Amino acid sequence: MNLSQLSNLISNVLLLSLIGGIPLLAAARKVNVFESFVTGAKEGFEIAIKIIPYLVGFLVAISMFRAAGGFDFLSKIFAPLLTSIGFPTELLPIALIRPFSGSASNSLLADIAHTYGGDSFLAHAAATMMGSTETTFYVVMVYFGAVGISRTRHAIPAGLIADFVGLVAAIVVTRWFYG
Amino acid sequence: MLNIIWLGLIISAIIISLFNGTTDAVVLSITSAAQQAVTIAIGLIGIMALWLGIMRIAEDAGLIKLIGRLLTPIMKALFPSVPADHPAMGSMTLNIAANMLGLGNAATPFGLRAMEQLAKLNPHPKIATNAMCTFLAINTSSVQLIPTTAIAILAANGDMHPTRIIFPALIATCCSTIAAIFAVKFFEKLPLYREKASHELIATE
Question: Which of A43, A144, A170, B93 could link A129 by a cystine bridge, Cβ 3.0 to 4.6 Å?
């Protein structure tokens, strides 16, 4: 069994032990498990519906920007700055789109891995970047949206700093492991 | 901030599309994105219901409080404004744990629930609290221990040992999480972002 099969098995065991273990433990503590489940599930339904307007607003704006070629435009602007600090130009698009969209950055990673090979430095650096950064704008919009916050204060700047550090760390660490 | 980003994306998309001649693509993307947003949310309903149902069972059994108590020292340092036995602590702990394990499906429901509980502690419903910003910064810094999707993509493109990235990715993600915590704790003290300053802003509006 290889490592990725092993990690898959571990995730499955974790998931099943949560779904089976929690109700079992609760039942042992005399909790009316099904009734509790339904009460909680109702709340989940409401939250999912509540975030629809925020998702629509966010995804429409992002898709427009992407379809217009906005990310290519941003790449061109930031290219000189980032190449001057040794950031590979090939990884620029994925670095820029990552804070906005998880699915778009995943497809860019697939693109890089396909073009340069799955075991290339670029593919590994990009994959590491995906592991060390997050879809900051998406998380902020949806999480704050769910509770009606309009003044997000320092959440976005802090999230973007974390992303930037994650990006740089990914490149440095990958280089280090390749060198 | 949200207003500026949202408006900025839309207006710059229109301007760029006029220069690039991509107006058709932009117009098409509007309706498809709006539909896609609802599809995502509808898909989320089942997952949210399932995990919040399971979480409620854990809560009624006192398990959430137990987990919360185990991690109290760390959580208290990160979220000094949230009482140690507040339900938000349990939800945040579960969200971070689910993220670490790569259980994204379970992480979102816990995270949204945590935000609702944090909102109950918020005296100014429209302004984010320090606890909310810290929680989001940790969330957006990615605490995932094993980047499963990225590994799968590398493997699909001919990498014989895609799991080699686990260790480098772990180092990089630790860097970004530490940076997030430092940044958020530093920013919350700046005059520009201070809780009090934001309150005054609302009052004068």
Answer: A170
Q: What pLDDT score was predicted for residue A13?
A: 84
Instruction: Note whether B19 and B84 are same-domain residues.
Output: no
Q: Which of A4, A41, A62 sits opposite B49 (nearest CB)?
A: A41
> Which of 11-30 (B) contact A at CB < 8 A?
12-14, 16-17, 20, 22, 25-26, 28-30
Distance CA A132, CA A117 (A): 21
Q: How far is CA A51 from CA A143, B76, B191, in A?
A: 8, 29, 31
pLDDT of residue B66: 79
The pLDDT tens digits of the residues spanning B131-152 come to 999 999 999 887 887 787 888 8
Domain that holds residue B20: 1-61
pLDDT tens per residue, range B68-94: 777 788 889 999 999 988 889 989 998
Tell me whether B90 touches chain A (CB under 8 Å): no
B106-118 mean pLDDT: 91
Q: Does A96 touch chain B (CB under 8 A)?
A: no
Which of B61, B83, B98 is the last residue in one of the domains?
Answer: B61
Distance in Å, alpha carbon of A57 to nearest chain B alpha carbon: 8
Nearest Cα residue in chain B from A8 = B148
CB contact under 8 A, A68 and B118: no
User: B86 and B45 in one domain?
Assistant: no
Task: Assess contact for A131 and A97: CB atoms under 8 A.
Answer: no
Token digits for A109?
């990673």
Q: Are residues B27 and B124 in the same domain?
A: no
